[in-house]
Design brief:
Blueprint lengths: L6 E6 L7 H13 L2 E9 L1 H13 L4 E7 L11 H7 L7 E10 L7 H18 L3 E6 L2 H13 L9 E3 L6 H9 L3 E4 L9 H9 L5 E3 L21 H12 L3 H16 L7
Parallel strand pairs: 1-2, 2-3, 3-4, 4-5, 5-6, 6-7, 7-8
Helix pairs in contact: 4-5, 8-9
């Protein structure tokens, strides 16, 4: 990567059992690849602990988002645990609530519980004035209804409402979400051979709404399919978006890193 390219991975999960030496090696590879910032994202108690751990290890490079994702919806977990966890870490270490959201594709039978859990996250996000990280799959109507109410009552900076991570939906739905103030983030799925419709969506996203992520350790981009994903692979995703949008990788880096800084409250760098 060119030395002027400084990318932000806005969504990476870590394993709390990963030895510190392995975390160090992963972060070193990320830095060599031009990834200057990472948002470590939770989703259950273990992933939340991992996100906070890595953020504490790399305070200048990593910040955390903590939440309870849809697979926790029937396990009795509550957002009160998130508020308690935030009280134990330095101010500014947690920059978002999530991920959370709705998934009718994998768990349609728990959609009522998923909605209740997502609503609790949205209430917490509003009370803390922290952006929310949203997962949505095959649940456009339910997701939009909840987020429309959330946006209507949002008391904070309009640029910091939240992000739809790993977007795989259609263009019109993305437009409706952006109308509420959300950023749209794309993962390694955009590099897949059968993702031309998603690449068409990428072309239509305004530059000031665009983010990129790896979703580590999932969804490794081509040509790394079959391997655990990691932040060091983010330049491949950036290159795909650059080609699709007809701009340079440097421009994608600048756009998405500035957007990430605004959303997550990081100081702006010179790109």
């Amino acid at each position: 990567m060119c030395g002027t390219v400084m990318l932000t991975d806005t969504h990476a999960h870590f394993d709390n059992a990963m030895p510190a030496s392995d975390v160090a090696a992963l972060m070193e590879r990320a830095g060599k690849a031009g990834v200057s910032r990472v948002v470590a994202v939770g989703g259950d108690p273990g992933m939340n602990a991992a996100a906070l751990r890595v953020a504490a290890m790399y305070p200048g490079l990593v910040r955390a988002a903590i939440g309870l994702d849809r697979h926790c919806a029937t396990k009795g977990a509550g957002v009160d645990d998130l508020a308690r966890a935030m009280a134990t870490v330095p101010a500014g270490q947690v920059v978002a609530i999530g991920e959370t959201g709705l998934d009718r594709h994998h768990a349609p039978e728990t959609i009522a519980e998923q909605k209740r859990l997502m609503e609790a996250h949205l209430e917490l996000s509003r009370s803390l004035r922290l952006p929310v990280v949203i997962h949505t799959r095959d649940a456009d109507t339910d997701t939009f209804d909840l987020l429309e109410s959330y946006a209507r009552q949002w008391p904070g900076d309009p640029a910091r409402i939240g992000v739809i991570h790993c977007y795989t939906g259609e263009g019109p739905f993305a437009e409706r979400l952006m109308g509420l103030g959300f950023f749209i983030s794309f993962s390694g799925i955009v590099t897949f051979r059968n993702a031309e419709s998603l690449r068409s969506v990428v072309r239509g996203i305004p530059g000031d709404r665009l983010l990129i992520e790896t979703d580590t350790p999932y969804l490794a981009p081509v040509p790394y399919r079959g391997r655990p994903n990691e932040p060091a692979f983010l330049p491949v995703i950036a290159a795909c978006l650059a080609a699709v949008r007809g701009v340079s990788v440097e421009e994608i880096s600048r756009l998405t890193s500035v957007n990430a800084a605004r959303l997550f409250g990081w100081e702006l760098k010179s790109y």
